[in-house]
Amino acid sequence: MASRFAPKTVLAHLIQRRNQTYSEIVAEFVELGGTITERHLRRLASGERAGTTPQTRRTLQRMFGKPVEELLAPYVAEQAAQVVPAPAASGRITTGTEMEVLDMAASRARAFALAAQSGLGSEAMEQVYDDVRHVATAYPQRPLPEILGQLVETQDLVFALLESRQRPEHLRQLYFLGGVTGGLLSKASHDLGNPHAAMTQARTAFLCADNADHNGLRAWVRGLQSLVSYWAGNPHDSVRYAQLGAGYAEQANSTTSVWLPVSEARAWAALGNSDATRAALERAEEAWTSVRSDELDEMGGLCTFGRNRQLYYAADALAWLPGEVDTAERYSSQAVDAYTDQSHPEWAFGDAAGSHAAMAITRIVSGELDGAADAIAPVLTLPTERRINGVVHSARRVHQALRQSGRAEDARELQEEIESFTRTPMQTFPR
Question: Listed GO molecular functions (predicted)?
Fold first, then answer.
């Protein structure tokens, strides 16, 4: 039966032609090995959302016989005569690499476990935790295009669970996970150069942290707001957010009690305040004496703050201050060394790139142009999908340091390389 509402996408039209409800489509989607919420499917069909995971793209193509690019395209009435392909006769997975097959099978098992219970049980709750933990751990190490779709779908799942009836004992846990996913999407928005979206996600994440009554999460979100403000060129706001989170960090005694003062330090450094910078760096170091891991730290990845990141932040801060060249050189050297081992759990390509940029700046100030070129070289070879906002800004700081060095002509070739690099930041994602 045709709907009286005109479909906005080809996908919406094909769903109407099949005369099925969205919940029936979701059930069939799960049978084919995929995982999707009704809310996410409706948003795709309405054209409100285009981001999908590779698994979702494959499953939609199997269901409707068209590439996702065509399914999400605006619907034109002349397309109505096309035949809707029948559903697959079997739910067995027969395409993809071995790892893709295993991922699809795991998603099918997860969807069944969540759907098989009227309210979340302990096993289902553990599965949601595992989904969030997986994205948090992968975030610093994998290109954003590879995980953004999964992150969006995970947030969508958590919000959908919060909007349905849940046992009281699970609400706090779900709000906690909503805060974590919101924080990760705040970082993703920042990495794509969208500070407005980043702050919107962060505010919602802080609301979730309040509902979960989790001081470590509150402090972490303030740290994210400080980070976004810093890279957006608003150091006063960066200081303010770091200080707003300090009280929560003190109560949590988690690694946020290190992250917030060292974030404050580099914002003060951007403002040229050497004394405040050094004082904040000292507070960060002193905080380690009382740090104990909390529920958020145990998520790992972007949810915790380790020694390696502290070295990078300190190097990044001190590189702003001409009077701290020797100290900045020492910290940047330690940070570069710390991020050499890509198998280390704390390795993060963005922080590694920032460490190299800080080293390049200190060498420029010292008059070592060849050494600066060597330091920034690994950054300039990063593929487009790893040229996140912070990395591009770090490269621009090196370019600025070259301009201010009085030897810009000697470094013209390096400046041109940096300009070429920053012209192609990560902006778009394949569907």
Answer: DNA binding
